[in-house]
């Protein structure tokens, strides 16, 4: 039957180990994409992915492969992101597959996300095929990499496929091994339909497009379907697969991975992880969905023009269809007006959301400084859940703060142990264990505050270890810490969106950093602007933005009206991402200075 000839697999790896490039070679060797259409990392089709050279979104492609046994197989390949911030994309991809290609860079060996992605694959009961990539590099060490896969990841690696995605060596062998080593989908064609929604996006003509994996039964155009959790019913108007362009089909059967259009306009009814069944002959139960993702950091998003608040809401809803890890709820700020408190899996995720809102939805927004979630205990016994520092109205009423801690795992060549210990301890990291992975690499474990990991830790780690360190972390729980809320006053007025929560030991250092940085990013105005950092009523640091010396228009004395207009336009463009707070114009960067980012 056709089912025996289907192979569904994800490509998983640590970032930069070559997932997307291997996907390129597979598409090329199977003639799925012609030479003329081929470009590097072809599945990274979003602008942001191409500019940053990383995969952000999962991508599901159908292709055909004629194997040495003379039979033609249908592969559904799902490329996934490697960065920790997008592990939610990976976990959803895996639930749509029977197997995973585990890519390991032969010059880098096993890294932190190699391990965490294998755990995700094992949780989903997948066949794992180890693939050692970049064997063309002079620094490639295949034997050591095999040993690491066995010792650290704990799966047999003797039989690993050896490839170079750069030269295409070994890729034909890889295609054969996908056929022989990954199991076909279970034959549940005669069962009632269950199809898992693993992703979705909004198309302005078609409405919501669902990406599904059919686990049992057959779906056809014209079928009446029910989403089992939301209980909503729709008619299938169109279905098909991506190869990588959309190809329409009349049906998707058990084992297939494809898209469904059903005239869905009410976005709020759609949840990834929901199960599609037939309204007439429903399945008894829904498939196991996904764990909700837990945001790690929160930030406010505000429209620069307050009248755009409804557009922002609609855009966030549409974006959430394609980014299931994003959360948001309305909030108000004295300084910024109406906006949303948004939750993200990390700062890269946060930056990507900001960029997608601006590019795909053409919005001008201000994003406030990110904050983790705190538990705050007041003297009167009340407990506050705080993901925005301005929720603490009166610091003098706070008895204790608790903050999230993580278990952090750092893999690094042993020559850098000293540097790692130094920067980690500076971030309030508490040493747990150290283990030699082989002759020259170690795994260090630390407990440390999540807020410190987010605050530049990874960048410092990378730069102090020449890029060799890899990091993985997960929340371990909440612990009491000696924290305070720091306010920022512009022109004597506290600006709620600029407050932050900091450790008492670093109050004066951080206060100074913030006021100095703000001084450089807030443009000069007609008057002098004092900037102060304060704990309660105590000022801990101050600086001043001097006033303009000259009026810009004074230069255009006389009649040159076009020049005058040009200057005004230039000023306006410069204001694009500025928000008037009281009488002070504050640019986007100001909010990021709080977190030491820019
Ligand atoms: P991903 O993050 O796992 O998707 O990795 P990419 O496919 O984006 O590759 C990361 C980098 O490694 C890119 O610069 C690729 O050109 C490079 N690369 C991938 N495979 C190979 C290979 O086999 N040999 C060499 N020398 N470079 C490779
Ligand atoms: Mg990639």
UniProtKB/TrEMBL annotation:
An example Gene Ontology molecular-function term: GTPase activity
Gene Ontology biological process terms from the UniProt entry: positive regulation of translation
Pfam families named among the record's database cross-references: EFG_C, GTP_EFTU, GTP_EFTU_D2, LepA_C
E.C. code: 3.6.5.n1
Top EC group: hydrolase
Subcellular location: Cell membrane
CDD domains xref list: EF4_II, EF4_III, LepA, lepA_C
Keywords carried by this UniProt record: Cell membrane, Elongation factor, GTP-binding, Hydrolase, Membrane, Nucleotide-binding, Protein biosynthesis
Membrane topology: Peripheral membrane protein
Domain of life, source organism: Bacteria
Principal localisation: membrane
Catalytic activity: GTP + H2O = GDP + phosphate + H(+)
Occurrences of domain Tr-type G (ranges): 4-186
Positions bound to GTP: 16-21, 133-136
Gene Ontology cellular-component annotations: plasma membrane
Similarity annotation: Belongs to the TRAFAC class translation factor GTPase superfamily. Classic translation factor GTPase family. LepA subfamily. Belongs to the GTP-binding elongation factor family. LepA subfamily.
Cited function: Required for accurate and efficient protein synthesis under certain stress conditions. May act as a fidelity factor of the translation reaction, by catalyzing a one-codon backward translocation of tRNAs on improperly translocated ribosomes. Back-translocation proceeds from a post-translocation (POST) complex to a pre-translocation (PRE) complex, thus giving elongation factor G a second chance to translocate the tRNAs correctly. Binds to ribosomes in a GTP-dependent manner.
Protein name, per record: Elongation factor 4
UniProt organism field: Xylocopilactobacillus apicola
UniProt lineage: Bacteria, Bacillati, Bacillota, Bacilli, Lactobacillales
